Amino acid sequence: SQQGEEDPQALSIQEGENATMNCSYKTSINNLQWYRQNSGRGLVHLILIRSNEREKHSGRLRVTLDTSKKSSSLLITASRAADTASYFCATDEAGTGNQFYFGTGTSLTVIP
Amino acid sequence: KAGVTQTPRYLIKTRGQQVTLSCSPISGHRSVSWYQQTPGQGLQFLFEYFSETQRNKGNFPGRFSGRQFSNSRSEMNVSTLELGDSALYLCASSLVGGRSYNEQFFGPGTRLTVL
To answer: Does A105 contact chain B (CB < 8 Å)?
Structure first.
């Protein structure tokens, strides 16, 4: 299956610091998305990057995509306590339409 | 617009029973996908429905089934429940689905516990 893997599995930082998490996947993709999940709740869509894009910004979020390495990174700048959550990457394997494969997630804790 | 709603939010069942979960997508959205989330396996795709037809299916046994109604509301059913079916079941809706990308909006999930 296409399931991606996030790295690290857990990350703990001080408020104001930057947080970087990585995602690796296995096959060719159409898009890669990042989601946030607060403890045991639904997922919130953060940002989408298409396979022909290399970098995308949204507020304090910066996403990069390297299709040659089949990897993506999510950078959260100037982190806040409210950023504490689990972060997942999701890919849709080329040709499979709306079927998304989620990574294992990075648990981020931002200490006030 | 109201978001994706899922009912019930919490459910406790015993092994061998069957359960039906419901998902109401955002108004106008025609694609509904279901996911199972467990600590061990993470988020796994169950199936996607579009215009009352199952378009994509994940790697789950036949005990897991679903359907979609003409108003795009969807239900998923799990028969002969097993302990391992305990999970958070998430529903996501998107405008179109299929080969065209559309952002998926997730509901809060149904927490199923099988005793």
So the answer is: yes
Pairing mode, if any, of strands A55-58 and A61-66?
Answer: antiparallel
Residue with the larger pLDDT of the pair A27 and B5: B5
**Nearest neighbour of A42 by CB, restricted to B33, B56, B108:** B108
Residues constituting chain A: 112
Over residues B28-56, the pLDDT tens digits come to 999 999 999 998 888 899 999 999 999 88
Which residues pair with residue A67 across a beta bridge?
Answer: none
Q: Give the span between the Cα atoms of B31 and B24, in whole angstroms.
A: 11
C-alpha closest to that of B106 among B5, B14, B30, B28:
B5
Point out which residues pair with B84 in neighbouring strands.
none
Contact flag A43-B90 (C-beta cutoff 8 Å):
yes
- To the nearest whole Å, the CA of A57 is away from the closest chain B CA by 17
Determine, for residues B56 and A45 on separate chains, whether the beta-carbon distance falls below 8 Å. Answer: no
Strand locations in chain B, DSSP E?
5-7, 10-13, 19-24, 31-38, 42-50, 53-57, 64-68, 74-78, 87-94, 105-106, 110-114
8 A C-beta contact, residue B31 and residue B49? yes
Burial of A90: CB neighbours in 10 Å, binned 0-12, 13-18, 19+: buried
d(CA A8, CA A18): 14
